[in-house]
Amino acid sequence: MSIIADPVTGENLGIREARQPSSKVAYFGEDEPLRLDAGRTLSPFHIAYETYGELNAAKSNAIYVCHALTGDQYAASRSPVTGKEGWWSTLIGPGKPIDTNRFFVVCSNVIGSCMGSTGPATIDLSTGLPYALDLPVLTIPDMVRAQAMLIDRLGIDQLFAVIGGSMGGMQCLQWTVAYPGRVFAALPIATGARHSSQNIAFHEVGRQAVMADPDWRGGHYLQYGTRPHKGLAVARMAAHVTYLSEAALHRKFGRNLQDREKLGFGFEADFQIESYLRHQGMTFVDRFDANAYLYLTRAMDYFDIAAEHGGRLAEAFRGARTRFCLVSFSSDWLFPTSESRSIVHALNANAASVSFVEIETDRGHDAFLLEEPEFFGAVQGFVSSAAKARGLQP
Question: CA-CA distance, 88 to 103, in Å (whole number)?
């Protein structure tokens, strides 16, 4: 497995960014603890974030962008680890559907992750060692609680909008439930109000792959100078299958052989799809931390927005004042359209302002990260309409 390293010092860029991020960082001291669902507090802690555009004088044009499981704060700027453009650079920028000539965009790395916010690779000041599994288990509400503290730090009372896909969509929904008066509009994309048993099952396969790697060392691999790359790569390969659709896989790969004209009768990558998944696994370990993968998948598994309301989703949205637009993709089997419809029905039961768009595509769950003209049109239309209702100048 290759490692992305500083060409001068040879330092592992992934670990460096986890501890000394290139982005902005908000620090919260011991007098500003983060209350966690696990019954503990986290302090001190910090949040790494990026901003795009300018906050207007009334501080009324802020959009919070929430990233998915393996995303980061570099939504519309180049990643300092991979050197690649931001994961939503097609959607965010001057003149784009989320127009930074008009809006102030904030995107933070979630706590528990590995791109500069407090996570398992962060040094625990009480021991001088990486937290590893000594970091408390985190939840989606914990992540959003930390984001609200960042927004307070930035002096923003109400967000114009919160937008996110997949795990980002979970954060988006949590914002509207936990802080109903602070979110004018919300755009949850390719997401659900809770993680299904099938999704939990796939995450468990990934976690077991990581923990079965002898280099994981009970989670203390950074302390021992090892990395469970093989286990994390297998976890990524299994997860990546869920991000695609059978139609997209067949269209792209079929049963085509990889650099050969006949079967090899062995266990090398005979098929193109095998080679593709191996590549996905190998490139993932270059930029992501294995323990962070455990923490973030667990946070998604625990998410159930109706749980505190007797299992009644409509109760979670009682009194909702946010304008909603939900987006699903027809070939997404990780978060199928039925998941979005159940949220729409719960909002309808509360007479909330909600619209819904299902995008016809065979590109699967990851369609929300790709250039989909109909999707971009839906985002631009909803954001423009909400801005008009909010009284923001075009």
Answer: 15
Alpha helices (H) in 288-372, listed in sequence order: 290-302, 313-316, 337-348
Question: 148: closest CA among 119, 177, 125?
Answer: 177
Q: pLDDT (tens digit, 9 = 90+) per residue, 76-113?
A: 999 999 999 999 999 999 999 999 999 999 999 999 99
Tokens of 242: 């869920």
Q: Torsion over CA of 97, 98, 101 and 102, rounded to 10 degrees?
A: 110
Place of tokens 């439930």: 177
What are the residue numbers of the active site?
Answer: 166, 332, 365
Cα–Cα separations (whole angstroms), residue 112 to 80, 138, 276, 291: 19, 7, 28, 9
Chain segment 169-187, per-residue pLDDT in tens = 999 999 999 999 999 999 9
Q: Which residue has the tokens 């000394």?
A: 20
Residue 115 corresponds to which tokens in the numbers above?
């791109």
Phi first, then psi: what are they for 107, rounded to 5°? -135, 120
Contacts of 385 (CB under 8 A, 6+ apart): none
Write out the E strands in the chain.
Answer: 24-28, 34-35, 41-42, 45-52, 62-66, 92-93, 98-99, 104-108, 123-124, 129-130, 159-165, 183-189, 323-329, 353-359
